[in-house]
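Tip: read the tokens left to right.
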């Protein structure tokens, strides 16, 4: 059993972020419901407990309270925000509603570094978000840090190894936040820092096996990072009990289907069913040029085709998804609140409820970079693990206007050249996305002495951290020139290539 840090969840939106910070310190952690008993925690081999924040007031009538016996386990406890208020309230001090809600940045002055603040600057910019505050220390505690608003912003009971902090060390906005967490884990709990991606995989494999038993699991494989890593992980756990379905919607990039088949079916020996529904998708898209309508048609048709494909697979009990926590972390702050950084994003919304399948989501606690590390450890190639995002509706939103076979042929060929050049020059890995867009306009060109009235391709290459904002990439002119001349020379029917120099906002990354 690994050394486990228990995170007791009192409903904070940052609970998963605390768990992530702990993993960053290479320590294993598990999130528990706040009511988990001390006996259960002892059985789990817990070496330290973190009490998360939460939206309640400890003084409220139905305030979530932990089993008081957790303070008798003899293991260190760190209370964060609501957690420190709980300690004040339950251990014989006093927590009262603050006259002023403290919300946003503050400065923590460290009065006694001790073990929690060892090797840190004496002043830290920290993130607060609380209404109540501790006004009287419980017996055994002393103050180790203050803010303008509170003489008890950080407290410790050295004998029992209990710590409380009013601020959120887990959020990005707190300076040295991860160092505070690490100090608690290593200096206070004596955690070994030996938890690695391999351990995560071993654990996830055991969990998957325990959950699915001998039943069949279906996974919609898109070839993107998340579903690919989920497939590889599930395959490691349950082998041929996993069936992956790859829907060819006719809106894929050049060689995409073949690449997926070759990697998963031939290389990994995954039971992969390719459903060729391209004719159906393209028929339904005929005559439609309004972007939202196209998206709806593509989404609806996908669900229909996916459901139908399940009939031929036989009885399945589980649907696996590569859902991440969160799928997209937005680094913009809305209203100065880091909670708004988190946005979840579901690609296959609506599928499970309708199909009465139970969900398996082995990546749901991980962040993107952790998923990439898992994918790499499972032997997925760099092309998959570091693949740029590709929208669910595929080239359907990259052919501006009506989608036709002819337009797709032109777009695919141009896009393949762009991808090849981006990879060859190393730029593919540096940018967020790079792709071609087919524009539904014609432009005049000249080939030899002939007038050539043909298609226009736009290049869209952007940098971004999270897709919420983006800026166009300053690609070297010579490279742009080379890409443009290859596309106009090699792709039949393209007379002009333009470079999109709009940032997001006000533009979006995709054209539709
Ligand atoms: P926009 O165009 O809104 O795109 O700036 C932001 C990011 O999301 C991707 N995108 C999608 N992904 N289904 C997806 O799975 C979609 O319908 C979809 N639309 C846009 C886009 O490629 C970019 O990375």
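Filled-in amino acids:
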């Amino acid at each position: 059993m690994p050394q486990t840090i228990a995170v007791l969840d009192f409903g904070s939106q940052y609970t998963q972020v605390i768990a992530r910070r702990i993993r960053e310190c290479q320590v294993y952690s598990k999130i528990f419901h706040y009511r988990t008993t001390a006996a259960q925690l002892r059985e789990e081999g817990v070496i330290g407990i973190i009490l998360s924040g939460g939206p309640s007031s400890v003084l409220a009538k139905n305030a979530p309270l932990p089993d008081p016996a957790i303070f008798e386990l003899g293991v260190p406890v760190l209370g964060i925000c609501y957690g420190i208020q709980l300690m004040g309230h339950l251990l014989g001090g006093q927590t009262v509603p603050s006259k002023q809600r403290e919300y946003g940045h503050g400065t923590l002055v460290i009065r006694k570094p001790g073990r929690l603040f060892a090797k840190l600057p004496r002043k830290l910019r920290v993130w607060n978000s609380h209404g109540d505050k501790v006004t009287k220390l419980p017996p055994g505690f002393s103050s180790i840090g203050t803010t303008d608003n509170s003489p008890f912003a950080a407290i410790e009971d050295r004998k029992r190894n209990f710590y409380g902090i009013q601020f959120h060390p887990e959020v990005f906005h707190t300076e040295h936040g991860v160092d505070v967490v690490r100090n608690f884990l290593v200096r206070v709990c004596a955690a070994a820092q030996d938890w690695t991606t391999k351990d995560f995989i071993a654990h996830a494999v055991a969990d998957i096996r325990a959950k699915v038993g001998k039943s069949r699991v279906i996974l919609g494989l898109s070839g993107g990072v998340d579903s690919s890593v989920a497939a590889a992980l599930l395959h490691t756990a349950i082998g041929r009990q996993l069936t992956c379905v790859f829907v060819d919607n006719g809106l894929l990039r050049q060689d995409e289907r073949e690449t997926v088949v070759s990697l998963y079916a031939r290389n990994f020996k995954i039971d992969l069913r390719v459903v060729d529904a391209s004719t159906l998708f393209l028929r339904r898209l005929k005559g439609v040029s309004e972007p939202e309508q196209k998206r709806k048609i593509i989404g609806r048709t996908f669900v229909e085709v996916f459901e139908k494909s399940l009939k031929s697979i036989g009885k399945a009990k589980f649907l696996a998804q590569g859902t991440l926590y969160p799928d997209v972390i937005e680094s913009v702050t809305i209203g100065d609140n880091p909670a708004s950084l988190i946005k979840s994003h579901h690609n296959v919304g609506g599928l499970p409820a309708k199909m009465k399948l139970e969900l398996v989501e082995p990546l749901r606690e991980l962040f993107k970079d952790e998923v990439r590390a898992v994918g790499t450890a499972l032997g997925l190639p760099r092309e998959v693990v570091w693949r740029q995002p590709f929208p669910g509706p595929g080239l359907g939103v990259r052919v501006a206007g009506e989608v036709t076979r002819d337009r797709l042929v032109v777009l695919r060929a141009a896009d393949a050249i762009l991808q090849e050049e981006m990879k060859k020059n190393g730029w593919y890995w540096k940018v967020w996305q790079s792709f071609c867009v087919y524009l539904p306009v014609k432009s005049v060109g000249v080939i030899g002495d002939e007038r050539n009235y043909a298609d226009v391709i736009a290049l869209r290459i952007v940098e971004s951290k999270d897709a919420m904002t983006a800026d166009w990439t300053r690609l070297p002119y010579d490279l742009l020139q080379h890409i443009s001349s290859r596309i106009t020379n090699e792709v039949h029917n393209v007379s002009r290539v333009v470079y999109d120099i709009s940032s997001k906002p006000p533009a979006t990354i995709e054209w539709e």
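Confidence is low (pLDDT under 50) at residues 328-350. The longest strand covers residues 94-110.
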